[in-house]
Amino acid sequence: MEKTTLSATARDIFGKKLNASRAEGHLPAIVYGQDKANEPVFLNMHEFTRTYAKAGHNTIIDLKIGQDASSNILIQDVSIDALTGDLTHADLYRVNMNQAIRTTVPLHFTGNAAAVYQQEGTLLTNIEEVEVETLPGKLPANIEVDISVLDDFEKSIHVRDLVVPEGVEVLIDGEELVCKVDPPRSEAEMEALNEDIVEEIPAEEGEEGAEGEEKPAEGSEAKDDKAEDSAKK
For residues 129 and 127, what is the distance between their CA atoms, to the nearest angstrom? Predict the structure, then answer.
């Protein structure tokens, strides 16, 4: 498999001054872990965005900082501007390739469930990732879940059914439901659901409130206008 690489430069700019650097295409980041000093760095925004889309949080990346020796890292976390959706910061975690790590791996659902396309059921996914422990070099990009075994509404897939690579230990309960197919709703269920929705629609503004209460005939402004008209007469 082709190795994922990323380059960085040392950073000595912090705080509000980083906004100008971001505008120039530099993404601030911090490299930490393995009992070493934290290293503030700049990443190329375009390069990191492309790498992050490919690697996610569970692919070992070869990080080169200037002329220093490269380090094996994981993208631990990223910060995103809530208004623009732009990346604003990244946390990069150094890993020891000889030391087991704990992280989450996404589930990749493959195949077609006959209970969906033949019996009009709905696929229900209960979890979309699992926590695992493994050596960094054996960390899978994802774990495939073949849903083609779901050919009726009685079958389901649990964590114990997942096929994981050798050397990878799944840390959550094997009885945890991964996915199943729910049968289509009956006409009676749909009617009951529609009735519940109608009951939850609030009354329109200005309509009669609680039972027994009447809407005022006229507001205070209308009464004042009538009083003023009477005085003129």
Answer: 6
DSSP string, 135-164: -GGG--S-EEEEGGG--STT-EEEGGG---
Query: Which tokens in the block code for residue 140?
Result: 């899978």
Separation between Cα atoms, residue 158 and residue 185, nearest integer Å: 24
Q: Which domains does the chain have, with CATH numbers?
A: 4-94 (2.40.240.10), 101-182 (2.170.120.20)
Q: Residues of the chain whose pLDDT is less than 70? A: 1-2, 186-233
Q: What are the two backbone dihedrals, phi and then psi, of residue 213, each rounded to the nearest 5 degrees?
A: -95, 140
CA–CA distance, 159 with 140 (Å, rounded to integer): 16
How would you class 159 by CB atoms within 10 Å of its CB: exposed for 0-12, middle for 13-18, buried for 19 or more?
buried
SS3 51: helix
Helix, strand counts (H, E) of the chain: 5, 13
pTM for the structure as a whole: 0.71
